[in-house]
Design brief:
The protein is built from 2 helices and 37 strands. It has 612 residues and is mainly β. The strands form 9 sheets. The protein has a 5-stranded mixed beta sheet, with no helix packed on it. It has a 5-stranded mixed beta sheet with strand order 3-11-9-5-7. It has a 5-stranded mixed beta sheet with strand order 12-14-19-16-17, with no helix packed on it.
Amino acid sequence: MIKRITRARIWRQSPFVLLGAAVLIAYLSAASHPPSVRAIPAQQTKPTVGFVNTVYTVAENQGPAVISVSVTLTPASGEDVVVTYITVPGTATEGAGGDYVSKSGQLTFTNSTQNTQTFEVTINNDNILNEPNETVNLILQLQTPNTANIGTSQATLVITDDDLATATPRPTAATGTPIFVDLTEPNNTFQEAYQIQPDAAATCQLTLWPPGDLDYYAFAVKNGTFYKILTDQLSPGIDTVLKIYNQNGEPIAENDDFGGVPGNLSSQVVVRAGTTGIYFARVVNKSPADAANKTYCLMVDAMDEPTPTPTPTLLPTRTGSDACEPNGQLAIACLFGENQSQAFNFVPPFREGPDQDFYRIWVKPGTTITCETTDLSSVTDTNMIFLGPNGEDFNPQLGNDDKEPGNKGSRLTYTSTYTGWLHVLVGPVNPVPLAQAAQFTYTLACTSTVPPTATPTLPPTTGGGGGVIPIAPTITPFPTVTPFDLSAILTPSPVVIPEVTIQPLPTATPPVGSLGVSTVNVTVFYDSNFNFTPEDNEGIIDVAVALFDNTNGRLIAFGYTNQAGSVRFEAVPSSGAVRVEVPLLSFSQIVGPGESNIAVRVAPLPLPIGIP
């Protein structure tokens, strides 16, 4: 499990296919041996230090401008408390010509200082119009765990666009205050779930900002009681998806648009508690619109056993319709296997038609699904569309009419980045006369593959006699490390200047633009015995590690090394390659989808001969 960041929390892990490996070694010259492990027992009486707010907002057209970020210690401490801070780019760019100036430093709380201190971040105006809002991640790290506990250690600085800030004036006291983050935040995980009471008044003024926000709520249930959980009073631009979990965190119910009524974007589910304890509700926003200043309400009602809705009597299906009918709507999509082939037609099951066929296939991250229509009759011309788990279009849209010139069949391929249903829609290109519908036939075939594991090959050799018998090489997980020339760092120097040298071992260049998920293992270690291998007592704790989507620069994961000097980011989705950064060591490396292992070595230096 990965450590959380407050507003840019991206990580929700899932199993996937492990691929590839990458190993890197970094060296840091240092004059002293840093501690390898710091194990601090938890103390409830220690004060807490952290950000005052989780979100800070500034308009870009105010730049160059300086925004103050507050850090508070509660209550006051009798001992010194030291924290360091650093800015990590989200979607905003840093440096000259960028959106902001990077900043890092240290704050020290003593008996003679205020309990709230600030640091400043400078914002630039890049004069680019019509760009989206951009973000900067603010990271706080506790340096004195013996004297305090860390509280809110991550915050987000939002830089609003010129046009947005100019065209939309902030409401005055007469019109109300803009709503970005509601009072229940942070509630982005099960552990942070906000407690609500069944049968109480609806909890309102809830937000789903910034984009990708997850809202978790907890409510007490009694064994055998039915509960109705619903979202209501949605602002335009909010389209909720409601998911319910039992006390073990297992999903038990989900709803997008209640009742399937067009225009009704609220969600509602009814569950029966199987135990007495705590259940959870998660709300996400499906709408791509800007969710700033848009709200919704959530309510939980205990209720008697609901009256079953009478099952409507279906019209008999028309003679000649295929085995999957009726499947003309997303809600009744026909279950189709990932390696299945079956014949169908365009005979409408009811009334006059036209007939269109929905199918659904269960997919997992890294799985590649290829579907095609074959064995078309002479009058059949198909069109195929891939849709997401809730029937939404992919971006870009996935559709195909003719797989090749002269072939009226259709073919689509998709590599999944999620676990859930992939929907396949097959329809006729031209209108189908009802009287001849049975003649419009096709076969749907879908296959599933996973990316192959690379197999080492031997260079071609020549020889006499009967030729060469190839011998399969032994595959090792990591290349052998060649010992490095240590003379430069073993020669005593009167002045020791910290220097970082990064030497990556051979690593395949990841393909740019591909979709997939990545698992990254990072170990930072102090190589005290010069064996170039991390050992149990050499790990460096609390080193910040960040993962960025290399295509768009978005921060997708962040964490700190544990007592063994390691941190694992599991099943992190991205639009392609992933950039791994260790800010403390100015270390950066790009890895591809699959599993990568990175070892960052900190090499010790001998002390100078004479110590003044």
